[in-house]
Design a protein that fits this description.
By secondary structure, the chain is α+β, with helices and mostly antiparallel strands. The protein contains seven helices and eleven strands. The chain folds into two domains: 118 residues, Jelly Rolls (Sandwich); 85 residues, Arc Repressor Mutant, subunit A.
Amino acid sequence: MIALTPGEKAALAALGERERRLRRNAVLLSENDRLTELFVLKQGMMMSYVLLDDGRRQILRFMFPGDFLATAALAYGTSPETLMALTDSIVCPFDRSVMAGLFDHHPRLAAAITALEQMERVAMTDRLAAIGRTSAKARVAGLLLELRHRLRAAGNSLAKGAAPASFSPGITQEEIGDATGLTAVHVNRMLRQLEDDGLLARDGGRFTVLDDARLARTANYVDRYAGLDFGWLPQPR
């Protein structure tokens, strides 16, 4: 999307010099933990969530390779969310002061990172708005479309050799429910409805989209990763 200069590429690569390995279900940060670092997700899949007063979990985001994690550290001293690995993962930590250096020495790169974070925020806003304003079937369909897009964008190995419309979301029905405000039983019922409507086919943990256009209409889905405008970015130094 953005053609980086050699200096910008080197600065971006420097963010990944240190690595921390996480096993599946390991917690990287818990709510209210002190924040001093940001992270780049190098490998695997992670999620962020908050725990409600009644003990229920609301999943906010799913993260894929290349995503920045714990960006709240740029504004807050403690974490507003829990970050957990959904698969064995590798994250690259860097001190939040490094971002100050990027704004100073590579302002275009820092601005691009900020813009990409806004894209993630808008996509999350769509999904959280859907929880209160759309049907259960639309919520599930929208989340599946979002996950499919992110898996493709991240070059997920599970998609290699698969049919173009086939993908494995890599999350459980319970996690789909926690992201859409539904119970696992309700999620299963909605998946069956999507199958009965001829929109999806399931084979174990793999989904095949049978009618992209109808599924997108059912979900009221807007692809927030299309039509991005980076024309305002400053010229590289």
